[in-house]
Each structure stands twice: as structure tokens, then as C-alpha cells.
Amino acid sequence: MSLDPTEMQAPGADQGELVQALFRALLGRNAESEAVEAFARLPGAEAIAQGIAASEEFKRKHSSPFWHYTSCFDAVGLMRKYAVSCEPKEGYIVNFLGVAISPKFLPLILEPMVGEVQPIPLPANWHADIAEWGAVLRSIDLAVETYTVAELGCGWGCWINNAGVTAKRRGLKVHAIGVEGDPGHIEFAREACAINGLDADEVTLHNAVASGQDGYTLFPVQKHAGHEWGLEAVFDATPEQRETAARAGTHLELRTMSMKSVAQGRKLDLLHIDIQGAELDVVERSREFLRSNVAYMMIGTHSRRIEGRLMEALLDDGWVLEIERPAQLSVRSGSPIVSVDGVQGWRNTLLTAS
Questions:
Q1: Rg (CA), the chain
Q2: Closest by alpha carbon to 167, among 193, 141, 192, 188?
Q3: Which of 24, 203, 238, 266 is most buried (CB neighbours < 10 A)?
Q4: CA dist., res. 344 & res. 326, Å (int)
Q5: How far apart are CA 296 and CA 55, in angstroms?
């Protein structure tokens, strides 16, 4: 991080305001009054910045793997551009984009946060990091007049809400499409869209599984929606597996949807893919459709192998990688284990201007 005192402190600038500005830039929050008084005594911006950088809070914050992304655009700047000031909403958590979230969507994580209005997540919050927020907001920045977002593995509708609400506030005509295998999560998504002002005719939700082709698959049944978020479909199940699952009630038989079926004739401004390792299959089987119909993709990656294969395929097809944070690994018994999923943001040069 480079800090130029001549840029950050104009002649006669109030020292307390400078302290607050540096706290927001370096720690993502305002300083307490005691901290303002203490740091304001230091001689200039460089000394204040060095003091903040020496704090344990700064060290903890900037040791996070979520700072280690690469981007050709200002992802944090986009987050600040689209952030809104809003009031708390009783019974909900409200994020920096003004999206209200029910604690029942992820009760173990969200119940302690009820009533909060959360700040810009630098470098991450309970759900996503700078790279993912930046890719989604970049797609909104590139859109003209209309904005269609499709989220594969939409869960409670996180990204159709975050993107849809923000694009609608920008004045774009919005349509949001969600695909999700868990029927309880589909109801969460329907509720979230209604809470956040996305009208019924602006939203299409499918209780299905995204795939490279249309067909059928088995999807695990969970007793309590909101408790499990990494459920994986069983593709190409044998007749014996299907019969056993139906008899035991462990799985639902759901349709799989190709990208053509998901889009239903619409051009997509954003395709958000986070489907527990099946992202490579979807992309490789849909390359021609994606190139002709999708302006931007945010892909959650679940292995370094997947990341490399995605790069090879999409670069060959003329896509531009605009933001990327690799999956974080640990090594156990000589094998790489993904501890944090990766992020890739891709722009289609055929359908967008730079």
C-alpha cells in the first residue's frame, strides 16, 4: 500500500478528519473518539498511517487471504460507488448495498447479526470477498438499459438480490433468474426477492440443478433448510441408485437445466456460477452458448485444476479475465485440500465494451 502525504492532507486539513479518512481506508471503519485524539497528535499523514499499520487490527485484517486477488479494475472503488446509507430493518441484517437478509437463511451465522447495518466488507464478510463483490458490481457497471442476472446454485438468492437490487437502483430494467436444487432454499430466495423489492414478474426461480445439458439428477434432501449449503447433485445416477434414493427418501429426482434452458432466450449480463465443483462441466459443455449470450461471468472455483481448465477454455474463446483470486489450499498427507474456494470474473468482449 502506497500512501502519499501530499495527496492525503491538503494544507490546513483538519487532523481529526485525516485520522478518520485513514482509518476508513486502512481498516474499513471509523475511529473511536479516543483513537482520533491519540492519532491526531502525530505529525502528518505518514506518521498516522504508520501508527495504524502497526496495530494488531491492521495486521489481522491484512493477513487475510481475501486481500490476495488480482484485478484490472478498481474492485474496492466499485464497492464504494454502489454502497448506500440505510437504516436498520427490524428482524433482518442489512448489507452495504441495502439488501435485507433474514437470519433464518443461515441461522447459525446470521442470528447474532440481527439488526445490524453492515459496512463495506473489506476484505470479506460472512458471505463473500472483494473479488466476488467486485466481479458482480463490474457486470452492473457494464450494463446498458437492461440487466439480466442468472445465479446457478442460488441458495437464498444472494446474488440475484444483490445484483438485482443494485442494478434496479441504477435505473436498469431488471430480470433475475435463480436455479437451486434445495426446495427450502428456493422458498428462501422467493422471500428474499419480495423483501427487497424485486417484483414477481422480475424474478424466475427454478427448483432444478444447473448442468451442461438438460436431463435429470438426484439431489440430497436436508431436514432443515439453511443448515447445509454444500450439497452436491448425483449426476448420471444408475437405475439402482435412483430406486434406492426414492425408497429411502434421501434424494429428490430433479431436472437438470442447460444454460440455454436457464436463459430462456434472454441475453445474460451476469451469469453467477457457484455449484460445488460442477462449474467446469457447465462451462465446457456450454462454450458456444456462453460466447453468444453471456456478457459477464462470476465463477466460484473449487480446485486449482478447475481454475486452470477454465482459463484454458475461456481464453481460447476470447474471454478476458478481469479479476481473480485463486482457491486457497492446505496440504494433508501430500494432497492439496481446498480451504477457501476461488473466484474468477470473466468479460465477454463480443458483448461488452471495455
A1: 22
A2: 141
A3: 203
A4: 8
A5: 39
- 141 and 53 belong to one structural domain: no
281 has a pLDDT exceeding 60 = yes
Q: What is the pTM of this model?
A: 0.80
**Cell numbers describing residue 56:** 494488531
Domain encompassing residue 11: 5-63
Number of neighbours of residue 275 by Cβ within 10 angstroms: 22
CA dist., res. 117 & res. 110, Å (int)? 12
Q: Say whether both 136 and 11 belong to one domain.
A: no
pLDDT band at 230 (very low <50, low <70, confident <90, very high): low
What the block records as the C-alpha cell of 101 is 437478509
Q: What is the distance between the alpha carbons of residues 43 and 140, in angstroms, rounded to a whole number?
A: 42
pLDDT score for 326: 95
Nearest to 299 by CA among 131, 172, 47: 131
Burial category of 266 from C-beta neighbours within 10 Å (exposed 0-12, middle 13-18, buried 19 and up): middle
Output the nine-digit C-alpha cell for 79: 464497492
CA-closest candidate to residue 304, choices 344, 332, 334: 344
Supply φ then ψ for residue 349, to 5 degrees.
-70, -20
Counting the structural domains of the chain, the total is 2
88 occurs within a structural domain: no
